[in-house]
Amino acid sequence: MSDTASGLPHEREAPFVDPWSKGPNHQDVVPIDAVFVGAWDNDVGIFEFTEALFLVRDDRQDLLWSLTTYSKSELSCGCVAGAPREGTQSEAARRLLGVLVRARVGLQFPRPPYLPGLLASNELSDIVDAVSEELKRNRLAAEAAQQRQKAQIVEVAGELGLNPRPAGHNDSAWIADCPRRTHTLMLSHSLNEFGCAYCRRKGDGNAGVPA
What we know:
Blueprint: E1 16-17, E2 35-43, E3 48-57, E4 61-70, E5 73-84, H1 89-103, E6 109-116, H2 121-148, H3 152-159, E7 165-166, E8 173-177, E9 184-188, E10 193-196, E11 201-204
Antiparallel strand pairs: 1-5, 2-3, 2-6, 3-4, 4-5, 7-8, 8-9, 9-10, 10-11
Helix pairs in contact: 1-2
C-alpha cells in the first residue's frame, strides 16, 4: 500500500505514461492535495472533450492526473503519467504534460482554449506547439527518407489505397488505414514492416499488408 496522498504505491517511481489511466490502481478520484495545472480541449476526431490536469508530488515522485468531461458529464479520472521528483512544480508539470501529449499522438491532441492554473495559458500552448513542431519535422524527415530509399511496405500500402502517411513519432514511423477496421496500422520504413495492434497481425513488405 502507499503512504502518500496520491494513493499510488512507491513501486511506480520509475517513469511511466498511461495515457488513458487504464493501469492497475490508476483510475481513481483526483487526490485532495493535487495542484490544478491547467485545462484544454482534446480533439479525438469525432468529438471534443475538456481535460483538466493536476500535479501531485511527494518526496519521491511527480504524478500527473487527468479529469475529462463532456457536456458536464465526467468521462474519466485517473493518473496518466509519473516520474521521479525533479525540479519545481512548474517544471515537473511541463515535463509530464509533454510526455502525455506525445503518447497520445494519432489518437487525440490538445487544442484551445487553454485554461491557466499552475501553468499559464501560453505555457500550455507552448507545450502543444513544441510537440506539433516536432511531429512536423519528423514527418518531413520520413517523407525525405522514403524518397531516397522507398520501403516496400509503404509502397504496398499506397497501392492498396490505405493512405500511408508519416506518423511523426520519428523519421521511420508511418501509419496507414487498416483494411479490416476503422483504425490505423503502423508501418516502419527502416524495418519494412507493418503491425496492427487491433487485429494482432504483423508482417513485412514481402508479405504485404493483410486485406
